C-alpha cells in the first residue's frame, strides 16, 4: 500500500511538472516530449497521446524487467494520463514565463520520476530503456535519460526557436541531474526486484527428517 501511495505521488508530481512546461511552452524529452509535440500538432489531449505512444514499450519491459515492474508502469502511465487530462479540464488557461517554467517544471519532474524509479515503476518509453541499461550495464539512468531526452528536444529545436530550445535543454538537464542524484537508491530498488524474482523462480527445497 505504501508503494502504491509513492507511485501515486510520483505520477502527481510528474503531471504537475509536465503541465507547467506545457503552459510555459517549453518542451521536455522522452515519450512525454514526443506526446507534447504531437499534442501541439494534432490538438489531441496530451494524456491520450502519452498513453497510446507507450504501448509498444510494454513488451520490452516484460522481457527485461518482469511483470511486476511492467504492471506498475502501466498503472503509472494510466494514472498520469488521467491526472493530466483532469487538470486540463479543471484548471483555467494560464501562462508561465518560459525561464521560470523550465526550471520549476524540470525540478518537479525530476523528483516525480525519481520517486517512481525508487518504487520499481516508470512512465514507460525511454524510462524503461534507462532502467534496463542501468540494470544490465550499470549505466547512470540520469545520463541515459538526458541523452535520449536531448534527441527528442533537438527534433523540435528549429520549430520552437533558439531561446525556447535552450530552455528546454536546461529543463531536461535539471531533471536528469535529480535522477542521477538518486541513482544509488534506484539501483538498490532494481536489485531487490531481481533478487525477489530469483527467489520466486528457484524456491528453496526443504527436507523433513523423520526420527
What does this structure look like?
With 211 residues, the protein is mainly α. It has one domain. The chain has helices at residues 2-23, 30-42, 46-53, 57-90, 98-117, 126-137, 141-155, 157-160, 162-181, 183-201. α2 (30-42) packs parallel to α7, α3 runs antiparallel to α4 and α7 (141-155) runs antiparallel to α9 (162-181).
Structural class given helices, strands, pairing?
mainly alpha
Strand content: under 5%
What oligomerization state is this entry in?
A: single chain
- For the residues shown, what is the average pLDDT? 81
Report the end-to-end length measured between terminal Cα atoms: 44 Å
Number-wise, the strands total 0
> What share of residues is helical?
over 70%
The number of helical segments is: 10
What is the number of domains? 1
Q: Given the C-alpha coordinates, what overall shape results?
A: globular
Main beta sheet = none
Low-confidence stretches: 194-211
Radius of gyration: 18 Å
The string of secondary-structure elements, in order, is HHHHHHHHHH
Amino acid at each position: 500500500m505504501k508503494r502504491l501511495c509513492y507511485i501515486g505521488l510520483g505520477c502527481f508530481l510528474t503531471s504537475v511538472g509536465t503541465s507547467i512546461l506545457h503552459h510555459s511552452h517549453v518542451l521536455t524529452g522522452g515519450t512525454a516530449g514526443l506526446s507534447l509535440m504531437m499534442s501541439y500538432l494534432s490538438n489531441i489531449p496530451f494524456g491520450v497521446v502519452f498513453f497510446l505512444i507507450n504501448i509498444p514499450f510494454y513488451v520490452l519491459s516484460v522481457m527485461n524487467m518482469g511483470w511486476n515492474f511492467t504492471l506498475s508502469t502501466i498503472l503509472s502511465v494510466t494514472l498520469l494520463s488521467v491526472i493530466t487530462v483532469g487538470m486540463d479540464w479543471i484548471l483555467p488557461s494560464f501562462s508561465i514565463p518560459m525561464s521560470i517554467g523550465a526550471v520549476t517544471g524540470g525540478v518537479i519532474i525530476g523528483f516525480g520520476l525519481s520517486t517512481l524509479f525508487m518504487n520499481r515503476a516508470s512512465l514507460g518509453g525511454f524510462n524503461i530503456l534507462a532502467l534496463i541499461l542501468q540494470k544490465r550495464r550499470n549505466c547512470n539512468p540520469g545520463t541515459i535519460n538526458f541523452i535520449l531526452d536531448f534527441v527528442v528536444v533537438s527534433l523540435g529545436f528549429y520549430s520552437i526557436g533558439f531561446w525556447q530550445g535552450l530552455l528546454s535543454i536546461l529543463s531536461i538537464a535539471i531533471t536528469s541531474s535529480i535522477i542521477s542524484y538518486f541513482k544509488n537508491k534506484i539501483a538498490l530498488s532494481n536489485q531487490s526486484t531481481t533478487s525477489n524474482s530469483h527467489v520466486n523462480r528457484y524456491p528453496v527445497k526443504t527436507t523433513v527428517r523423520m526420527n
